[in-house]
Amino acid sequence: xxxxxxxxxxxxxxxxxxxxxxxxxxxxxxxxxxxxxxxxxxxxxxxxxxxxxxxxxxxxxxxxxxxxxxxxxxxxxxxxxxxxxxxxxxxxxxxxxxxxxxxxxxxxxxxxxxxxxxxxxxxxxxxxxxxxxxxxxxxxxxx
Length: 143
Known about the structure:
Layout: E1 3-5, E2 12-14, H1 22-41, H2 47-54, H3 58-67, E3 80-81, E4 88-89, H4 96-109, H5 119-132
Antiparallel strand pairs: 1-2, 3-4
């Protein structure tokens, strides 16, 4: 039996995979539902408006966006920025450009193994990455 202390309220509870006690998990899930429903009804809301209307911490909302649990619509006001370049994004941690660059770097290091992906997806990914990861060289000898 593994006993832990809840990171939110500090109470001791029997660990079941979450760093929060069952009561706090239910409270956080309700807050998440409140934010999701508010954004569904008010997709153009700013972060300040969502915080004010739902009474949910801005850091929690940003964390859900970065985790991909919340995804804003294309015409929404971006609430988070790409962790690499700072460009406004609607969900996740990286903008599309930086995500492709990161994948290119991983591919060039050989860390993206074919056997870890189904063959069809592997072929599709390689095609996309080859097009987007092509390096362009400048011939300085003719300059």
